[in-house]
Amino acid sequence: MPATLVQKIIARAAGKEAVRPGEIVTCQVDLALLLDSGGPRRIWPRLKELGVGVWDPDKIVLMTDHFVPAVDAQSAAILKLTREFAKEFRIKNFFDMQGIGHVVLMEQGLLQPGMFACGGDSHSTNGGAFGCYMAGFGAIEMTGVVVTGEIWMQVPETIRVNWDGKFPNGVVAKDISLHLCRELGMDNAFRVVEFGGNTISNMDMMERTVLTNMAAELGAETGLIEPDEITLESIRAAGVEPAVDALEWCSDPGAHYLATHEFNASTLAPQVAAPHKPSNTGPADDYCDVQIDQAYIGACVGAKLSDLHMVAEVLKGRKVSKGTRLLVAPSSNKAMAVAAEDGTLATIVAAGATLLPTGCGACAGLGAGILADDEVCISSTNRNFQGRMGANSSQVYLGSPYTVAASAVAGRITDPRDML
Amino acid sequence: MSDSKIIHGSAWVFGDEINTDTMAPGAYFKEPMEVMAQHCLEAVDPDFAANVKAGDIVIAGNNFGVGSAREQAPMALVYLGVGAILAESFSRIFYRNAINFGLPLLIFPQAKEIKAGQLLEVNVLEGVIANATTAKTYKVEGIPEHLMHMVDAGGLMPWLKEKYEQSE
Ligand code: SF4
Questions:
Q1: Cα of A363 to ligand 1 centre, how many Å?
Q2: Which CATH number do you get for residue A161?
Q3: Is A148 in Cβ contact with B21 (below 8 Å)?
């Protein structure tokens, strides 16, 4: 039986020839990503309760990103405990304050096509851009993974989403993701979205992860993209050799998809999601009378090096509007370092933006840059649920880094194509 | 059939796409569960946390538990004594988390027929929902047996405990 990529990965991880959708299997986990948020602080007490250790320290990757840098004694205590956990269990792959976990994972070349990986955070779907299965699980399930190295799976159905055609100038992967939230809805539980088409095969890995990252907003199990030379190049750039069978991890011809959707990138306009749902989406132009107090560039999805480059492209020779603040929290130290080197940060700061530390920051309302009552923000993050970035009455719009930067300059929501 | 699979309580009715940020607001993330639970769902129903009783049943529309993977969302509901959740559909991580805390969930396509305060009796294994107020009975898919053992054990932790005690 021809199988989709995710079914092939699950079959391999479950030690079976083949699996069928709906079947329940137990998979061996190749990599477990733990973050400071739902990681050691939730898992360690349970390990103590059970009187057991971790199944394999070399398959655990631990990062601090949600609570960095500490803003109060509680977040400092969480970070301290996370560091002690790394030491106690000899976790070699511990990245402390190096950036947001999902981004650091790819910068370190830790993901390979065909892998079966679990992360203790909903945007673990990010990793699926590498042609592996990577999905998010709660801390309680990650406890099970850390103890046993196994997890139960219900084999998901696959939805294929094809994008073909060349983007108009100023339109990027984020616009696809926002558009899909409206088109496919946010209720795709127990399904996997496989992205394809020439728009996507022409994207670099940073842009591809935007699509799989926001498979979480579609409510999907995860998103996947079949690996190609660009995937392998990205793994090599991290100083890691791609697995020998890397390019074999593709869906079989004739594999069954629950649905196939075809889209044309050449007619897509920059998209904005209005409060309080990522699926409340329309062309940026529809929102051009919305005045903003804050523009925020941040998160795993929206502050990678490629995103910072988009911001600088808009800001070059321009200033952030009076009465609006632009906050930029690069998603990793590596992105920060390269952007410092290539002049990107200089452009951003010269335009009047405020540079924030790397990490999750205001994205989940934990770090610097949160909103007061009734304030309006446009953000390059992935979620705009009520109260997520601060006060309950604050209003968050989502857009691409281009759209956020252009809106910061105009002081209101703006189609960035006017500035490119 | 043991009675632990049968839940009696009054219905608390919520709409579509109730997200985990609402159940466990980020503002109380660093607080203990006693504090966090008092704010559970307050953005959509300020009376819920203070008035929900042990065994009460949460009824919701589609995609209940959408959003962040935070396990404090089902934990807060368990802490408040919620006996079961019946919704048109669930987000995947929420579904898994809830099972792992021993909180039974059923997919209930007719959820919109239930009104707040109605008295329900739910058999989660068989998938039988009886509305004592309207005398109407519904049949839905019960909890799959391989997950019921987790619910029966009281969640993943008690289940792991059993497993590790047996292997010693
Ligand atoms: S940046 Fe935001 S979405 Fe990404 S992992 Fe951090 S909190 Fe989650």
A1: 6
A2: 3.30.499.10
A3: no
Q: How many separate domains does chain B show?
A: 1
Q: Which domain holds residue A315?
A: 273-419
The number of domains in chain A is: 2
Token pair for A226? 């079949």
For the entire predicted model, the pTM comes to 0.90
* B69/A137 Cβ within 8 A: yes
Ligand 1 pocket, CB under 6 A: A 65-66, 100, 102, 121, 123, 299-300, 360, 363-364, 381-382
Taking only the tens of pLDDT, chain A with its 420 residues reads 899 999 999 999 999 999 988 787 889 999 999 999 999 999 999 999 999 999 999 999 999 999 999 999 999 999 999 999 999 999 999 999 999 999 999 999 999 999 999 999 999 999 999 999 999 998 889 999 999 999 988 899 999 999 999 999 999 999 999 999 999 999 898 899 999 999 999 999 999 999 999 999 999 999 999 999 999 999 999 999 999 999 999 999 999 999 999 999 999 999 999 999 999 999 999 999 999 999 999 999 999 999 999 999 999 999 999 999 999 999 999 999 999 999 999 999 999 999 999 999 999 898 899 999 999 999 999 999 998 999 999 999 999 999 999 999 999 999 999 899
Instruction: Tell me how far the alpha carbon of residue A317 lies from the centroid of ligand 1, in angstroms.
Output: 31
A330 with A234, same domain: the answer is no
Residue of A nearest to B93 (CA): A137
Q: Do A186 and B27 touch (CB under 8 A)?
A: no
If asked whether residues A172 and A145 sit together in one domain, one would say yes
- A58 & A137 share domain: yes
Give the domain range for residue B20. 3-167
Q: Are residues A229 and A316 in the same domain?
A: no
When CB atoms are compared, the residue of B19, B63, B155 closest to A187 is B63
Q: Is A149 on the interface with B (CB under 8 A)?
A: no
**Atom 6 of ligand 1 has which residue's CA nearest to it?**
A360
Last residue of a domain, one of A208, A238, A264: A264
Kindly state whether residues A201 and A335 are assigned to the same domain.
Answer: no
